[in-house]
Amino acid sequence: MIFVYGTDLHGRREGYKALAKAAQEQNADFIVSAADSLPKGGYMLEEQRQFLQWLKSFSRKCPCPLYFGFGNDDLKYLVKEAQTAADETGGSLRLLQPRGDLGGVSYMSYPYVPEYPFGLKDWVKFDTDTSIRPPQLGPSVLSDDTGFVKLAAGPEEAEAKIRSWGTIRSDLSKVSRAEIAFIHAPPVGMGMDVCYDYRAVGSLAVREWVEKHQPLISLHGHIHESHEVTGKWKGKLGDAVVVQPGSGHYIVVTVQGDKAKPVIFKY
Predict the structure, then answer these.
(1) What pLDDT, on a 0 to 100 scale, did the predictor assign at position 103?
(2) d(C-alpha 82, C-alpha 213), whole Å
(3) What is residue 127's predicted lDDT score, i.e. its pLDDT?
(4) What domains can you pick out in the chain, each with its CATH number?
(5) Could you give the CA distance from residue 81 to residue 71 in angstroms, rounded to a whole number?
(6) Of 235, 137, 141, which Cα lies nearest the Cα of 186?
(7) What share of the chain is helix, strand, coil (3-state, %, to 5)?
(8) How far, in Å, CA of 96 to CA of 101, rounded?
(9) Can you give the pLDDT at residue 50?
(10) DSSP codes of every residue in 18-79
(11) Which pLDDT tens digit goes with each residue over 19-63?
(12) Mind giving me the DSSP string for 131-164?
């Protein structure tokens, strides 16, 4: 089985076209835009809605099914609309599910990232019970039918609300092994979670899950620049292959038996 993996495209149409071209050249079985698939900035609700319509049309031209998932910059309010858009294509566009099957190979997907300074909290949780909230750049919001709504009256109330949602660690403790893992947050301590200012912002909970369950391959994103900063896009936790290409590269993955081989390419 061969698939083409991209992340953090944020609605970049040329990026999607590059994934489709690579899938054609590699005779891939499917394409995955795992998270942060939709545009950000501007009037996000309308822009993301319009992009879903483009994605429907584009998927019909792809050489194989196109899977896509939500990440921290994709509006949770649109999940049902995204599923409807995918269903209307008859299979050319498919929304990643929490658990699923790709050509006989099991997968899991998980869109949440550790709490961060930015305002949109649709796909945010604290990593563990002891995680400290970073300084915030503005008010916390959730998506709704008007665009955004404030999460709480003030920062203390917002923090309490987010803590009430549980943690990434508690979520992943309920997830059993899958052969392929699509987890937006990168694991901590592998050089794949490093920002331009050299802060490492990866997830301990994700690392613990990969170490315990040993998927064939665990694919991540979220920190666009990490590959550029550290030069690291691939590593191993036990026998599990871990990859995070950032937003400037994509990966062609070959799965054969109990082995997964990733190769990185620049868009």
Answers:
(1) 87
(2) 30
(3) 98
(4) 2-266 (3.60.21.10)
(5) 15
(6) 235
(7) 25, 30, 45
(8) 10
(9) 97
(10) HHHHHHHHHT-SEEEE-S--S--SSSHHHHHHHHHHHHHHHHTTSSS-EEE---TTS-GGGH
(11) 999 999 999 999 999 999 999 988 999 999 999 999 999 999 999
(12) PPPPPPSS--EEEETTEEEESSSSHHHHHHHHHH
Q: Please state, in angstroms and rounded to a whole number, the distance separating the CA atoms of residues 77 and 265.
A: 33
Core vs surface per residue 225-260: b (16+ CB within 10 A) or e: ebbebbebbbbebeebbbbbbbbebbbbbebeeeeb
CA separation, residue 59 to residues 43, 45, 64, 131 (Å):
24, 21, 8, 40
In sequence order, which residues have a C-beta less than 8 Å from that of residue 31 and are 6 or more positions away? 3, 4, 6, 19, 20, 23, 62, 64, 65, 66, 67
Cα–Cα dist 206/227, whole Å = 18
Which residues, given as ranges, of the chain have pLDDT below 70?
none
Cα–Cα distance, 184 to 189 (Å, whole number): 16
Closest alpha carbon to 221 in 2, 4, 5: 5
- Angle at CA 131, nearest 5°, toward 194 and 164? 125
